[in-house]
Specification:
3 domains; Rossmann fold; 4-stranded parallel beta sheet; DNA-binding; alpha/beta; 45% helix; 12 strands; 326 residues; 6-stranded parallel beta sheet; homodimer
Chain lengths: 326, 326
DNA sequence: TTGTATGCGTTATCAG
DNA sequence: CTGATAACGCATACAA
């Protein structure tokens, strides 16, 4: 069933049907005739042919580092909501934490198969920036601050600063930190710097043996908690760069009968689902993940319909969730 | 940049370039010339035009009830892995637990924008079945058993039976059950029936006040645990149809200083991430979610390239994770 | 092996 | 307001 057959059945020209579909000039009479035929036949225009003509695919490419993460799935949910409402669809590309795959996907999307790209950033290497700059379509980066494009990100620095401040004010002084690679500016650099600056404010000198770096997985929390405890007899708190890492640390503490928060206080970032169920519940930071997705998708769609709007950088707030683990 | 320009630059016909792209007859000489030009120009064929001709989009529609769920995101990860390796892309449609949206998406996908559909089923109403049957492209249902198409699902019944049996053998007799709507055959009916049959095997008569039904969210666990405890003074265990529900129940128990497993034992299904971190850790069932996604995607792609292969129903196994909560 | 010509299903242009 | 017609970029039947 194509536009010509519909036209014949309705006794009009294909062009008239096209106008009907795209709200062009059309007499009420023909409009009705076409509506009737389309209703009866259940005709649906071929989006490929439309795309071939209009260069619009109504598809948005969303590149994420992994799907089975509380925070990312929330961002994706926010994006999906907006896209659905506006008649767009989401092409989901999962890199499984392989940076190079991000570039691969960007280049794949470049073939005009999407109208725009949303990149949930972890690492933004020069290669990434080059790939993005070569893009002819609008794009937006979520979760990382960058000057090469519109971006929506979280106030990681202040969140870490205030959370560390809170821990210190609770009486802890020998605080260990389990972070992630500094290639990730948001999570690796900013959260750590917030932590360090809070220490400095309280005249606490951070010892090297208290600062650890690991992966984004639970294992890292487990192993680094072990390492921190073995080297620092006075350790009384651990701040982890993500809730997932904190969960790993908690696992180690539990297995070794170390009481939270009496022996060791612990806190994370991201307000993962388990945080409130654990006992003691986990002190953490709520970021506006879903909102990040909503804002990002909304901006991107605006940019697609109106390419002249200037890129913006939007910093979202946070909330310290003061639970029992500190 | 299109196929004609490449042809001109390489001094060949557009058809030759097309053959180069599709491994058709071509002399080595021309092959090299075309390769050179394509390499230099960075030419990428328009997938829309290809689709218009070939009717193949290399897109797979994946319909899911929600994205921020441990189990579902694992299935999606498995699907994504296979699709990537085979040069397909995933169009992700999130229904946010609205059944009607599933039908909407199925109908949207029907416009030939995808080569196949993967439906992560919750509820399969007659309307769903009709929408699926109207489909001209291959599709597969994951997580639910059905005779209308290929399906890959979990052995929910036996898992529930064995888990309940295990709980009973641990000495519990007054076991409450928090389930979900029976519209969901896999989770709502099969798990409950496994539970009931295990009771029967041990000559335990299930009292109505011990069987609850709620939503898939934590709230349901919290509220129904409260209800169970208020009506059943002898209650000594709670089996929840999902880990998420179990987490809600645990929250209620913790808040009311009810000791797990001494006062009340508790168990769930799905081996969610928190299950191992909780203390006591949660007894649960491991299902092969990622494998389910992998198998589903693999089968679908096979079916796309070879439409004649018969539909199959594949039942995946499970593993009881015996943790401390029972 | 190669090239020419045609059509996939739309939409934009233009003349009416 | 309407309709004929020419693209969009590619793959294939057919002729060579």
């Amino acid at each position: 069933m194509n536009i010509n057959q519909i036209a014949k059945l309705a006794g009009v020209s294909p062009a008239a049907v096209s106008r009907y579909l795209n709200d062009g000039y059309l007499s009420d009479e023909k409009r009705k005739a076409i509506a009737k035929v389309i209703d009866e036949t259940g005709y649906i225009p071929s989006s490929q042919a439309q795309t071939l003509r209009t260069k619009k695919t109504k598809l948005i490419g969303v590149i994420i580092p992994k799907i089975d993460s509380d925070s990312i799935s929330q961002v994706v949910a926010g994006i999906g909501e907006v896209l659905n409402n506006k008649g767009y669809k989401m092409l989901l590309a999962n890199t499984d934490n392989h940076d190079e795959k991000e570039i691969e996907f960007i280049n794949t999307f470049k073939q005009n198969i999407v109208d725009g790209i949303i990149l949930l950033g972890t690492v933004l290497t020069p290669k990434h920036k080059k790939a993005l700059k070569d893009l002819t379509m609008p794009y937006v980066v979520l979760g990382q601050q960058t000057d090469i494009s519109a971006c929506i990100y979280h106030d990681d620095y202040t969140a870490a600063y205030e959370l560390a401040d809170y821990i210190i004010n609770k009486g802890h002084k020998n605080i260990g930190y389990i972070g992630v690679t500094e290639n990730d500016i948001a999570v690796g650099v900013n959260r750590k710097q917030g932590f360090l600056d809070a220490l400095e404010k309280h005249d606490i000198k951070p010892s090297k043996s208290l600062i650890k770096t690991g992966s984004f997985y639970m294992d890292s929390g487990y192993e680094n908690a072990k390492a921190l405890l073995s080297k620092n007899k006075k350790l009384d708190a651990i701040l982890c760069a993500t809730d997932t890492i904190a969960l790993g640390a908690i696992k180690y503490l539990n297995e070794n009968n170390i009481k939270i928060p009496d022996d060791i206080a612990i806190a994370g970032f991201g307000e993962s689902k388990p945080s409130s169920i654990l006992s003691p519940s986990l002190t953490t930071v709520h970021f506006y993940y879903r909102e990040c997705g909503v804002e990002g998708a909304t901006f991107l769609l605006n940019k697609i319909t109106n390419p002249d709007i200037p890129d913006k950088a939007m910093k979202l707030g946070f909330e310290i969730i003061k639970n029992q683990s500190v």
